[in-house]
Structure formats: structure tokens, C-alpha cells
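User: Could you go from structure to sequence for me? I need the amino acid at each position, not a summary. C-alpha cells:
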């Protein structure tokens, strides 16, 4: 297969390039200027145009890992977040419709579409109730994928990624916590510690993307990507503390952060039917991540 990875310099995208390059003809695409990497296409960061990319070359699969996965950013700069997470999906699908109609489109959506869900575990059919602009923009992107599948038979699949972590991720909970442990006498996190997430390691995410390519209905289907396991932030903090080799006490300020949901746990029946089984538990994943931060962070 010839696979195009949009956002190939980012966290999930770079891992996709590494994984799929073992067996397939993989092309990367991102806003970073790079004259040395083979099979790489640089695009404009302000006004990305994908028409020429698909006009020049046919692809079997396009994996869209681009966008901004940052709730505070979406609150500070909502239009920028909309362009990165919604408008670019529209542009990609329009380019595929015009120039590569047989190309399968797999895009990274987010559990942020659920907000604070009505019940746990969260099934894909639950009503979307986002609590941040980022979540709303991801819902819009999913609707655009459904639109292109319904009216123009473009093959689309939206993967609702829950709480991703692993090497090369230089933001979010694990990154912030490690550096707070390192730099602060009394590392302090938002919330009470009883908030929970459904964490999934990057290697497992990429395996799900591979399974989606082979098993998704590609009719605008939305699919949860997680481990089906609710873990509190306090448990995560303790796991990171142990892996960091410190005896510092991690505190919680008790304050809610705008745009953050409270509890998440995914129903992963669909990806289990595809053949998915988690391969990396939290303790092992955190050790690998901390080891990477110590070398490159």
C-alpha cells in the first residue's frame, strides 16, 4: 500500500511513519521544512493546500494525524483551533474527492467529543456533549467525514483517541507531571486526583490505526480508541512518581480547569472485534516514557 501520513512530524504521525514504513510505501506531510527526509512533503502552516498532493500522486490510505490537541489553546484561539482541527479535514476530503476517490481516510478524532458523558463506559452511540471548543471542532470534523461518505462515497473513519501517551509527546499530563516533580519542591496538579482517564500507549494506538485500515466500515464510522480501563489521576501521579525515583509528595489544588471533563472510560467493543488487545500496561508505558524524557526531554 501507499500511505500518506498528514502531521508526520507530530506525536502520533511520526510513530505511524515508523510503523507503516516497515511494510508499505509511506509518505509524510507536515508544516516543518525538511530537505533531508525522503518521501516527505512540506505544506504551508497558515493556509494548507492539499489539492496538489493528491493530484500528483495516488494513495491507498491517508492517515490524518494533524491538528492541535490542546484544550487551553482552543479556548485562547478558537479560530486557529477550528482551522487546524476542522477546516483542514474539509480540505483533505475535498482533495481526495477530486483527485483520489479510492483513498481510505482515517482521521484522529478525540474523546473530547463526549465531554462529561451520561454514563460509563462510553459507547460510540452516546450523545456528544463537548465542554471545550476543541471538542466541538472535533465533532464538526466527524460530521464532515460523514458528509463526504454519504454524498460522495469517500471512505472515512474517525478514531476517537482517549488519553494518549508515550515517547515524543512533549505536553499534557505525563510531561507536565515529570517536569513538576523534577523542578518543584511540592509538585501540584489541577483537580482532586479523583478525576479519571482511559490511557492508551502510543504503540497500541498505531496498532489500532492499522486494524482500522483493514476492518473499518469506512462509511463515516466513529470508533473509540482506548484500553477500556478507568484510571484516576492520583494513580497516574503515583506511578510517575515511582518511575521518576522521587519521594516528593504530589498535591492537588482542588480546582477545576475549564474545558476538562471529569471521568472517562471507553467501551472498546468495536476494536476488540477487530482483534485489538492492549499490549502495554500503565506501569511499563510510564517507565518507557520516563526513560525517553531522561534522554530527549
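Assistant: Here is the amino acid at each position, in order:
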Amino acid at each position: 500500500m501507499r500511505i500518506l501520513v498528514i502531521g508526520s512530524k507530530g506525536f502520533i504521525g511520526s510513530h505511524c511513519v515508523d510503523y507503516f514504513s516497515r511494510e508499505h510505501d509511506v509518505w509524510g506531510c507536515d508544516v516543518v521544512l525538511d530537505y533531508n527526509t525522503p518521501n516527505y512533503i512540506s505544506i504551508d502552516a497558515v493556509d494548507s493546500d492539499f489539492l496538489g498532493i493528491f493530484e500528483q500522486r495516488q494513495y491507498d490510505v491517508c492517515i490524518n494525524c494533524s491538528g492541535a490537541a490542546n484544550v487551553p489553546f482552543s479556548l485562547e484561539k478558537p479560530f486557529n483551533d477550528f482551522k487546524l482541527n476542522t477546516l483542514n479535514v474539509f480540505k483533505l476530503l475535498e482533495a481526495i474527492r477530486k483527485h483520489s476517490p479510492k483513498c481510505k481516510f482515517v482521521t484522529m478524532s478525540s474523546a473530547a467529543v463526549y465531554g462529561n458523558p451520561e454514563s460509563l463506559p462510553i459507547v460510540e452511540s452516546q450523545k456528544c456533549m463537548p465542554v471545550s471548543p476543541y471538542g466541538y471542532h472535533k465533532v464538526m470534523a466527524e460530521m464532515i467525514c460523514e458528509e463526504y461518505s454519504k454524498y460522495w462515497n469517500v471512505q472515512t473513519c474517525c478514531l476517537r483517541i482517549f488519553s494518549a501517551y508515550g515517547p515524543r509527546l512533549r505536553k499534557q499530563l505525563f510531561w507536565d507531571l515529570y517536569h513538576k516533580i523534577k523542578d518543584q519542591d511540592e509538585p501540584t496538579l489541577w483537580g482532586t486526583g479523583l478525576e479519571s482517564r482511559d490511557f492508551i500507549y502510543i504503540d497500541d494506538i498505531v496498532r489500532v490505526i492499522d486494524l482500522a485500515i483493514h476492518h473499518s466500515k469506512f462509511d463515516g464510522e466513529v470508533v473509540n480508541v482506548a484500553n477500556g480501563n478507568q484510571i484516576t489521576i492520583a494513580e497516574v501521579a503515583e506511578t510517575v512518581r515511582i518511575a521518576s525515583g522521587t519521594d516528593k509528595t504530589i498535591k492537588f489544588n482542588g480546582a477545576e480547569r475549564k474545558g476538562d471533563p471529569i471521568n472517562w472510560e471507553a467501551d472498546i467493543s468495536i476494536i476488540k472485534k477487530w482483534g485489538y488487545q492492549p499490549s502495554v500496561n500503565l506501569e511499563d508505558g510510564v517507565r518507557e516514557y520516563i526513560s525517553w524524557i531522561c534522554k530527549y526531554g
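One structural detail worth keeping in mind: The CA atoms of residues 153 and 219 lie 8 Å apart.
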